[in-house]
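INSTRUCTION: Work out how this chain folds

Fields: amino acid sequence; protein backbone structure tokens

Chain under study, with its fold:
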Amino acid sequence: MNARDEILGRIRQAVRDAPEVEIPRAYRTRTSVADLVGLFAERVDDYRAIVHVLPSAEVPDKITELVRGRRMVVPDGLPPQWAGQAERAGGSLAELDAADGVVTGCAVAIAETGTIVLDAGPGQGSRAQTLVPDYHLCVVRAEQIVAGVPEAVARLDPARPLTWISGPSATSDIELNRVEGVHGPRTLEVIVST
């Protein structure tokens, strides 16, 4: 018997005669938000990300403006009109590190938290593609925005690799000095396509 088995055995012994207790699971699963796009844009901005809310017809031109002349990672499955006029970067780790940024779509976005969720689906890239470059341009379609986390989780496949992004990568040291770009892109720019 190892230490783990011994500890679990003691716990089982201690609760052996305890009555069964039903644990209520009345979690909130829906939230009412009058303006999902507006709240999402506000929360993304609160995280020090750059946010643009544009009609879908203007999105390709905005992407072209933002990526022109940059070496960008363009994941498989990204709509061609979202690739802009970027010079395409390769996929090796060295090429990702040398890239100026990445342009992606997303799986879902959460208005209450300003969070974008990637699940490595078409146009979202791999984790390395979205975490190594220093700049991330993410296009979020208005219909992908949900009010709260429970609604987002309901749309996601837990078997897929999920990356939850709430603003540019940032951390703070023991003296609470903010340092950006440590665990991912230093700059997050979001286009919400309405």
